[in-house]
Amino acid sequence: MTIEAIASHEEPPKRRLSWQARQEDLLEKGLSIVRELGVDALTLGALAQQAGVSKPVVYDHFETRSALLTALYRWVDAERKRAFQDGMAQGDLAYEATIDALSSTYIRCATDASSEFFAIGAAMSGNEERARIYRELVDTGVQMFEAVLRPHVRMPDSELQLFCVALVGAGESLSTSVLEGATTEADAIATYSQLIAQAMNHSLVR
User: Fold this and answer.
1) 3-state secondary structure of 127
2) Same-domain status, 120 and 198
3) Is residue 67 part of a domain?
4) CATH code at 10?
5) What is the pTM of this model?
6) Rounded to whole angstroms, how far apart are CA atoms 15 and 152?
7) Dihedral angle at the C-alpha atoms of 188, 194, 195, 196, nearest 10 degrees?
């Protein structure tokens, strides 16, 4: 499929978009290019063509391809986090139900857009900002895990944080295994549930 073919499926804008709405639209179009053609096809010119705008419009939002990749990297992760938060918005759950919800929601959210997320990250290799951004993303994931698990365990905050660092790392590894075809989503979720339960059982459950 070509950029022209992808763009032909997009409806032309019916009204002038605000700057923020245009940015969101460009990021969505950029992700569709990565998904359909691969990250190497994502250039500022290709993005302008698919979005049906002039190159200066794209340059107004992203001065360089590196800036575009950075913004897209952050945006995809923000979408993953939003999906995770929505999936965990189930009210107060019992301990076992919390573990099941946490493992299934995290794996499904991570695998939903992870192939594009990792491809964009790989394209940013050599970008000094990438390591800092990734560290921020991991820290945010750890904080979300802490918020979910804290009501169910009795341990010092520093210890819970270390547990969550390990759990986020394990979740990313399991998600990668699913994407690479090394395991199924169902098996990854089951393994993750068992891992979380075993880790938390070392603490005093409330």
Assistant:
1) coil
2) yes
3) no
4) 1.10.10.60
5) 0.74
6) 49
7) 110
